[in-house]
Each structure stands twice: as C-alpha cells, then as structure tokens.
Amino acid sequence: MIYFDNASTTRCSEQAAEILIKYSSELYFNPSSAYPEGISVKNDLERARSRILRALRAPEGKLVFTSSGTESDNMALFGTRKPNGSRVIISAAEHAAIYNSAMELKKRGYDVRLCPVDIGGKVDYEAFCGLLTPDTSLVSIIHANNETGGINDIKALCAAAKRVNPDVIFHSDGVQAFGKIEVDLTDSGIDLYSISGHKINAPKGVAALYIRKGLNISPIIFGGGQENGLRSSTENTGAVVAFAEMAAYFAENRKKLTENAATIKNKIASALSEIEEIKFVSGTDSSDYILTFSSSKVRGEVMQHALERLGILIGTGSACSSTRASKRVAEAIGLKDKYLDGVMRISFGIYNTPEEADEFIKAFFTKYKELSVYGS
C-alpha cells in the first residue's frame, strides 16, 4: 500500500506506540495522585510539556494539553475574553474547527469577517489590513492550510493586527505546520497556537494549545481542575509523552524530513504538469508535505477510488462528494466549474519514499488516460 494522505492522519511511529503501551500497562498512574508513582508520572508529563514548548521555541509560554486540534481551536476562540459585539477575523479558507466556531460567535453577536485568500489558500495581506479595526478583538489565521498547503506569514499578519489594536489576540491553527515548518512563537508575537499529535506520527487523541506568557484565557471544560485549571480531565500521559517524543524528532530531523517530502512532491508535480487540463492549487511556496491539484476532466473522487483499487490512498477535496468544508475552501480559493469537482490532495509523511512517487505517477497516468476519455 502507498499511503499519500498524511494530511488526514499519519501512522503512529514505533517509538510513539511503544511509549503509549508502556504508560498504559506499566506507568498507568494518575498524574494527580499524591503517591510516588503518580508524582513520577506527573514529572514525566511536565517534561513532555517543556519539550514541546522548546520545539515551538517558546520555553516561557504555557501549554495546555487537549484531546484534539479541534478542541484546541475551540479553546482559542471561546476561551478568550472578547468584548461583546467586537470584530473577529478569520481567513475564508480556515479548517472547519475554526470556521464553524467563528460562525457560532457570529450567532452570539460578534462581527465576524472572512478575509479573502488566493488560489493557494494564503491570506490576501492588503485585504486583511483593510478588515482590521480598533475594536478587532480576535484574529485566527491558519498557518499551513490543510486543503492546499498554502503557508501564511503569521508573524507579519500578527504584527499588522497589533499595530491597529495592541490588545488584539492573535491565534493560529498550526496543526498542519507543527514539526514541518520552522516556527518561533517567542519571536512571532503569536498569542495562541494549536497543534496536534496525530499529524506528526504521534497517537490520536492528544493535542495542545500554546498560550503566550501573561495571556489569560478561560476554560471551556470544567471538572477537576487539571492543566492548571484550564482543561479538566485526567491527562493522557502516555499520549502526551509520545507527542513530545515525536515533536522532538521532527525538530531534530526537520531538514532531512523536509528534503525527502520535497523530493517526492517535486517529482510528482513535474510529472503531472505534463497534463494540460490539470491546475495546481498548491503554490511554489506551499508546504513541502502537501500537493493539491485539480482536473477539469476527471473528478477527484473517481480518481481516488480508481487508485485505491491499486493500493494507493490519496485525499480529495471534491465539492460534489466530500465535506461541506472542502466545498467552502474550494470556492474560497477561486476554483470554478469542473475544477470544483476535480480536486485531489496528496500529502506525504516520514515513511514515504521517492520510489513510491514513481509508482504513483505510473498508476496515475494509466488511470487518468482511462478516465479522461469519459470526462468523469
């Protein structure tokens, strides 16, 4: 099997799986317990927190562990203190976790504005600056777009927002970026940043929200007061430690891992550029881990199923058959007519190889020739 859908989720690494098993079968103690075993596990949890903060280059910041990137995004939007009716700005191509949360804020009376994006999903800087007002209380801009791989300059956008209102809270969904794109949260001025374990070969069910030192937010889950009162629930220590292990692995090996992903992406992009009716959505400055394109002759879902029968798994943002979120993003980036239905996303991970790219290219061209005759 060739797995080219790593933007959806990744295979849990052996080292992460071993850590998870160890903490489930041997070190299963509750980190809130007062006896030595519980205290030891609590210390492991805190060491993991510090490791991830170092990977974010924000050792003085706070980090709250959550169950998912979606929960982290919800905490960022609903846990921040915002004057009633104030302006909230997001990009038009945000992940559903941000978009739908923003729509809920709109129902509650906030002035929610969507910033236009280009075909790669990147925010239009001039349009963004035009939306900023002194009463803008919250901005949330995705770092690396999950559909297109487009990378936003969140440092520049944050600076622009704070020039208009120094008290604005700037959040970024970094789920697709963390580990793959170098980030320095201390230098960037970002207030809140969401990350998730299962995008970097850690287990599912563990994520985090970075909070800038000095910024206070309110919990959205109530109970026993874990995570310094910000996220009640017994911590999933094994998953947290595994998350930290993979965060450190990606930080230490970023250059090698990125070069491998770029080699695969460039090889496939070069081959597909020979097909006239294929339009690339991912730009040259997009994430090396994501390649999104669209065909006017073959629907994305049709190609997806044709390839899966050959043991090749890819993603699709098809407007006709995928989620409403994919349709929304496809329209936001300007895809029209048949190109709306022809979106395909291939995304790479640490276990993919250039040889798999060669196999993919051969299979894709074979199936594309068959399917394009019928125009899907």
Textual characterization of the structure:
The protein is of the alpha/beta class. The chain has two domains: 14-252, Aspartate Aminotransferase, domain 2 (3-Layer(aba) Sandwich), CATH 3.40.640; 254-372, Aspartate Aminotransferase, domain 1 (Alpha-Beta Complex). The chain has helices spanning 14-25, 36-55, 69-79, 96-107, 125-131, 154-164, 185-188, 237-252, 254-272, 300-308, 324-332, 354-372, and strands at 2-4, 62-66, 87-91, 111-115, 136-140, 169-173, 192-196, 207-211, 278-280, 290-295, 312-314, 343-347. Strands 2-8-7-6-5-3-4 form a seven-stranded mixed β-sheet, sandwiched between helices. Strands 9-10-12 form a three-stranded antiparallel β-sheet. Strand 3, helix 4 (96-107) and strand 4 (111-115) form a beta-alpha-beta unit. Helix 2 (36-55) packs parallel to helix 8. The longest helix is centred in the N-terminal third of the chain and has 20 residues, at 36-55. Residues 318-322 have low confidence and may be disordered.
The gist of it:
By secondary structure, the chain is of the alpha/beta class. It has helices at 14-25, 36-55, 69-79, 96-107, 125-131, 154-164, 185-188, 237-252, 254-272, 300-308, 324-332, 354-372; strands spanning 2-4, 62-66, 87-91, 111-115, 136-140, 169-173, 192-196, 207-211, 278-280, 290-295, 312-314, 343-347. It has twelve helices and twelve strands.
Secondary-structure element string: EHHEHEHEHEHEHEEHHEEHEHEH
User: Helical percent range?
Assistant: 25-40%
Shape: globular
Please give the count of helices. Answer: 12
Radius of gyration: 21 Å
Number of strands: 12
Main structural class: alpha/beta
Q: Report the biggest beta sheet as strand number plus sense, adding barrel if it closes.
A: 7 strands, mixed
Beginning-to-end CA distance, first to last residue:
25 Å
CATH topology of the largest domain: Aspartate Aminotransferase, domain 2
CATH class identity of the largest domain: Alpha Beta
Poorly predicted runs are 318-322
Tell me the name of the CATH homologous superfamily of the largest domain: Type I PLP-dependent aspartate aminotransferase-like (Major domain)
Corresponding CATH architecture of the largest domain: 3-Layer(aba) Sandwich
* Sequence of strands across the biggest β-sheet: 2-8-7-6-5-3-4
Q: Into which percentage range does the β-strand content fall?
A: 5-15%
